[in-house]
Specification:
Blueprint: H1 3-37, E1 50-53, E2 62-66, E3 69-74, E4 81-92, E5 98-100, H2 101-104, E6 106-113, E7 118-124, E8 128-137, E9 142-151, E10 156-164, E11 175-179, E12 185-189
Antiparallel strand pairs: 1-2, 2-3, 3-4, 4-5, 4-10, 6-7, 7-8, 8-9, 11-12
Length: 190
């Protein structure tokens, strides 16, 4: 191989490598920018297992359940969704296995009180059980969820996956936890 030809091939390889690197950086930056802006909401299945609302006009909250998770929360009217879904994710810290309520568990939904649209949702796998009871706080226009996590393995950790979609859109939405003065944790979005 001649030195001149080798240098030309080497120069071509360096230019190609630089081009690929720049393209990958641009793709990464584009994806990062889109992720920060939020994406428009992709709504869940219409095949609901539960629809919740208080009796009377005091509360302006409606919610739906499907596939083992909370699928929408509507406020202040039944056509204005502000939550796309909320589900729990279970991670085995030792094996790094990730399981979700929707995809990994068997689901069961039942009424907690025949006089109200309050539900208990149970999701079970061979490794854990998550039992959630949903009720609406009429005075605060809030959805309350009592969560009981029963792991069958000490290495399991529970996380919440919350996808807000304020005003029927996922654009520029964010979610975070906030500690109240009394020490309770709340989930907020804007």
């Amino acid at each position: 191989m001649e030195n001149g030809k080798w240098k030309t091939d080497n120069l071509f390889d360096m230019q190609l490598s630089t081009f690929i690197c720049v393209c990958l950086c641009l793709i990464f930056l584009s994806i990062s920018a889109l992720a920060q802006q939020g994406k428009d909401a992709k709504w869940e299945s219409a095949g609901k297992q539960g629809v919740g609302k208080t009796f009377g006009l005091q509360s302006k909250i409606w919610f739906t359940l499907q596939g083992g998770s909370l699928t929408e929360v509507f406020y202040p009217t039944a056509d204005n969704a502000n939550v796309q879904y909320l589900q729990f994710v279970v991670v085995n810290s030792k094996t790094k296995t990730v399981e979700t309520e929707r995809d990994s568990a068997m689901h069961q939904v039942k009424f907690t009180d025949t006089n109200s649209l309050s539900f208990e949702q149970t999701n079970t796998t061979q490794n854990w059980e998550i039992r959630k009871t949903y009720a609406i706080d009429v005075e605060r226009n809030s959805l309350l969820i009592d969560v009981q996590f029963s792991p069958k393995n000490k290495n399991l950790e529970l996380y919440v996956f919350y996808n807000p979609s304020l005003k029927n859109s996922g654009m520029k939405d964010t979610a975070w936890t906030e500690t109240l003065k009394n020490g309770e944790e709340t989930l907020r979005s804007s």
